[in-house]
Design brief:
Bound molecules: adenosine-5'-triphosphate
Oligomer: single chain
Number of domains: 2
Number of helices: 19
Shape: globular
Number of strands: 19
Helix content: 25-40%
Distance between the termini: 31 Å
Strand content: 15-25%
CATH topology of the largest domain: Kinesin
CATH architecture of the largest domain: 3-Layer(aba) Sandwich
């Protein structure tokens, strides 16, 4: 960690005047912890409808009535990403709404796939951390003094700017120092006292970062069922100097490592809690720098990095479940799914307030989709945009068959591979007799389903990947290449549509897009998986009668339940393959 903190912080003072040079110095990893005076710069009126004084009031009131606000922060390109400078960013602001929400569009330059999302606010590469503070965080602070807990967390893929936003840099203090400075200023001349704790959740265990040797903390249930961190140190701070001294030591103890995607990647979720108390009231502000969501294929993680990553991703998924439940006002909020969410139980939900800052790297489309899918699950999704016009739609060549085969082989599923190859012949379809297992009781079928997945996957693969499937219902001419997948809506038979509510995007396109394992697409939300396959008597009959029919004919001949089930299982199969 030594390269994160090259200087001594006890003697450094950074005032919060706007820097004279470029607002976003592009030094590789500014992890210095600033000392700052309370923020004084006014919010900059950009990108948001609620920046005018009137709208600003509306914003505060909307923030106080919402349990969770979701705001987007897009970082600028880094020098190392200069090669991407020619490519337009994958995210852009396309509109704002009277209620204060904004719509952003994510666009994949390679496939012209695009989606729109609604978020509560948008901060672009020109916006400073102090803008985020002024517009989103400062409004939470008065509530802390009235006993209303609040949580601000930075969420996003690795390298998307979470630590930069929460911790800040030497020149541009992050939300943590800005919040402490504001709280301390508010306490001046009152009887309020301020204490901080700082801990990390690493591989589902909690470590106190303010204690020497980052002592592990016992997590115990209290009588209300909330998790309490027994033995967590609370250190009183009376000035920014005191805070900086304590905090900088904790920051150096936090686990970080070099990964394929970030030179200094946080490997734990770090929670800084600021507790304000007077005789009668205690309020708490949690400022959380979450570890980054990681795509292990891109990060090339192995060994311990892979284990860390899997814990990180699963706890982020648990957090997204909690946020989603809170946003939807569900009666059951799944706090118990991870250590992180259990610890935050008293600060998420109830009368507490939360701001999720979704951080985006402007060049990685799939990461952006993944991050914003959390917002989508919280009811923020607007719509999938119609595909670009046909002449602009590139033909995507996806050799999914080879990928699938490779995956099966890498898992030692040579039998499945053979079976898959066998199924490429017209006779590879199940005969009615091979469907006899469908007559078993449902429970037996469900328990045997995992085993059957390979077979089903192969069968679905045959239906979807055979070139003939990609011809239109009207025009059954086969394309020249079996792997060529056209992405226009017209080319998918209407009977393939798994989600009746969402017809704007072809299901085949969805099926062929990377589907992160923990990403809940609107399709997943709308269509509960159908576990029961129904015996397609008529279908099997037709297949037998017409062994040379195209796979499209065969598919169309199946019963609608079976078709939907195949699609669903195909999607599930792809998810497994993605993992
Ligand atoms: N708004 C910004 N302006 C300039 N540089 C930025 C900005 N946001 C992030 N960066 C730079 O991008 C790089 C990655 O940022 P950071 O370490 O904060 O990502 P992260 O999301 O915390 O990653 P991880 O989850 O791996 O810890 C750093 O070099 C940081 O300085």
């Amino acid at each position: 960690n030594s390269n994160r903190f090259p200087g001594s912080f006890a003697t450094v003072t950074v005032l919060l005047a706007p820097p004279k040079g470029p607002r976003h110095p592009t030094h590789p990893k500014p992890r210095l912890i600033p000392i700052c005076s309370p923020p004084s710069t006014p919010p900059r009126p950009v990108h948001r409808v609620n920046l005018s004084p009137m709208a600003s009031a509306a914003s505060s009131s909307s923030s106080s009535s919402q349990p969770v606000r979701v705001v987007l922060r897009v970082r600028p390109l880094l020098p190392s990403e200069a090669s991407s400078a020619a490519v337009p960013p994958c995210v852009c602001l396309i509109g704002d709404h009277p209620g204060g929400e904004v719509t952003v569009q994510l666009k994949d330059q390679h496939t012209s796939r695009s989606e729109c999302y609604k978020v509560d606010a948008y901060f672009g590469k020109e916006d400073r951390v102090s803008d985020v503070f002024d517009q989103e965080v400062s409004a939470l602070i008065p509530g802390i003094f009235e006993g209303i807990n609040a949580t601000v967390f930075a969420y996003g893929a690795t390298g998307s700017g979470k630590t930069y936003t929460m911790q800040g840099s030497e020149d541009l203090p992050g939300l943590i120092p800005l919040s402490v400075a504001t709280i301390l200023a508010r306490c001046t001349g009152t009887w309020c006292s301020v204490e901080i704790s700082y801990y990390e959740v690493y591989m589902e265990r909690c470590y106190d970062l303010l204690e020497p040797k980052a002592k592990e903390i016992m997590a115990l249930d209290d009588k209300f069922g909330n998790l309490q961190l027994k033995g967590l140190a609370w250190v009183p701070v009376r000035s920014m100097e005191e805070f900086q001294e304590v905090y900088s030591i904790g920051v150096q103890r936090r686990k970080a490592a070099h990964t394929g995607l970030n030179d200094v990647s946080s490997r734990s979720h770090a929670v800084l809690s600021i507790r304000v108390s007077n005789d009668t009231v205690k309020g708490k502000l949690n400022l959380i720098d979450l570890a980054g969501n990681e795509d292990n294929r891109r990060a090339c993680n192995e060994g311990i990095r892979l284990q860390e990553s899997s814990k990180i991703n699963s706890s982020l998924f648990a957090l997204s479940n909690v946020i989603s439940a809170l946003k939807k006002n569900e009666s059951r909020v799944p706090y118990r799914e991870s250590r992180l969410t259990r610890i935050l139980q008293d600060s998420l939900g109830g009368n507490s307030r939360a701001v999720m800052i979704a951080c985006l790297n402007p060049v990685v489309y799939q990461e952006a989709v993944h991050t914003l899918s959390m917002a989508a699950r919280s009811g923020h999704m607007v719509t999938n945009m119609a595909s670009a016009s046909k002449e602009h739609t590139p033909k995507v060549k996806v050799d999914m068959e080879a990928k699938l085969q490779l995956w099966l082989e890498s898992r030692g599923k040579t039998k499945s591979t053979q079976r898959m190859n066998g199924l490429l012949s017209p006779t590879g379809w199940r005969t009615p007799s091979s469907m006899s297992h469908m007559k078993q009781p449902l429970s037996a079928r469900v328990s045997g389903r995992a085993k059957a997945m390979d077979q089903d996957g192969a069968k679905i693969k045959k239906v979807l990947f055979d070139s003939a499937v990609h011809t239109t219902a009207e025009n059954t001419t086969r394309p020249s290449s079996r792997d060529e997948v056209k992405t226009t809506k017209k080319e998918v038979p209407p009977s393939l549509t798994p989600c009746k509510e969402d017809k704007s995007e072809s299901p085949l396109r969805k099926a062929l897009s990377p589907i992160p394992s923990n990403m809940m697409t609107p399709c997943n939300v709308n269509c509960p998986p159908s576990l029961e396959l129904k015996t397609p008597i008529g279908a099997c009959h037709i297949v037998e009668k017409n062994p040379d029919g195209t796979p499209l004919d065969k598919f169309n001949a199946l019963g609608s339940n079976l078709k939907e089930s195949l699609i669903q299982q195909y999607l599930e199969f792809l998810n497994v393959a993605n993992k």
